[in-house]
Structure formats: C-alpha cells, structure tokens
Amino acid sequence: MTVxxxxxxxxxxxxxxxxxxxxxxxxxxxxxxxxSRYDGSEIIKYEQRAFDSAPLIGTAIxxxxxxxxxxxxxxxxxxxxxxxxxxxxxxxxVLEMFRNYEQALQSGGFEIVFSCENELCxxxxxxxxxxxPDLNTLMAYNEKDQRYLLAKLARPAGDxxxxxxxxxxxxxxxxxxxxxxxxxVIVESQAMQAGLxxxxxxxxxxxxxADGHIALYEIFFDTDKADLKPESGAALGEIAKLLxxxxxxxxxxxxxxxxxxxxx
Length: 264
Description:
The protein is an alpha+beta fold.
C-alpha cells in the first residue's frame, strides 16, 4: 500500500479509478494533485475553497477545549484550502497508513514540523481538537490509537502545509468498528484575489448613516510609514465625492492593520 506525492499522484488516481477502488467516493470529490490517497481508501468528506484560513495543530494539546483553550498549540495558514477525509480499506492499521503518508511527504521534499501518537499527542483532548465536527461519529473518542503530523513544503510559489490526522474507530459499533479514518488538510499559500470589493461614495454614505462607521480596505500605506501608496487614489477620490455631497459629515479616520497571520 502506498501514498504518492506530486505528479505521480495523478497517475495513481487514474489507476485507482480504473480498478474501481474509488467508486465509493462521495459525489464531486477527488484526490489532491499533490498528495494521493492511501491505496484502496474512499473519500467520505470533501471541501475546497479558493482562499481561506485554517488553524492547524502544531504541538501537543494540553487541555480539553480545542483552539479556545489551547491557542498557542495552533498555527494559522492562509491560501487555497482542500480538506479530504478518507476511510481506509478494512484490516489496515493507523500506523501503516501514517507511515505511508509520512514517507511520501518526506520523499516529496516536505519537512515534518510536528508529529505525535496516542497519549503523547494529548490523549482525548487532542482527539477532540483534531476531529472535525462532521466526523465526530467516526473519529471521536479514539484517542488510544491516533497519530498526527503537520508538514511544510517551502517553495517560491508559496508554502504548502499538510495536516494529517488518523485514528481507528474502536469506540464505534457496526460496520465501521475498527476501521481507520484519516482527515487530510492541505493549504497552499497564495495571494488572495484582491479588488473584488470597490469603494464608492454612495455605499460609504449609506454605511455611515446606518451604523455611524465603515471599514475601508482600499487605502494603502508603506509599511510603518504614513505615506499613501498610489493605488489608494480611487478610494480617496470617492471619499472626496462623499464629503462634497455630504458637507454636514465630519469624518474621523482610524488606521489599523487589516490582518495578522502566523507563519510556521
């Protein structure tokens, strides 16, 4: 059983489709082009967003309560987000599936930033933090057989982070008892598509009249300087139109950072 990283993953996916092992995948799902599935697995959850932020576990969890109770245990990555949950073939172990992914990621140039197993991850507190809500019935309360890794690939086009959590459903009954499940999150850092929201005088007037304040994201300064950048011109022009049309307005501007991001 193998996991492949990079271009080979596409070939692996085609072969699996031809063999019929991917026929049980949920509609609209697919393997990520950089990281293939563990052979014989089926996709049970899938989501992809062009740009989003994902909190990824970067160390052991010390207390129950997830990110709210363990804020320092999480790092945040932004970019193209893909999440795929897999159900492994019957009779496979957490360790076997984990080692395949670990070796494939390392062979593909990824650095393992953090990895852990069972109680060393933080036991049930880690299990609760690592299990997405939509997988609670399958992955929750299985802290005695769990493994996790966070890996990073540095590249000029933008870093890639891979978060992988695997456990064995020994606490459930029925057909899924003792089956192995994996939750794979891949974040490809890239620039957000900007310029999709425009500032105009009419919208600013409406916002000020309704709430007494508005947030503007089209005014740009050089880092740690008060010098306006040329690309702020369009927004400043609309502010001038607003003040000309509404001379009774007294405008107070507060400048702050638009966002703050942690890096691994």
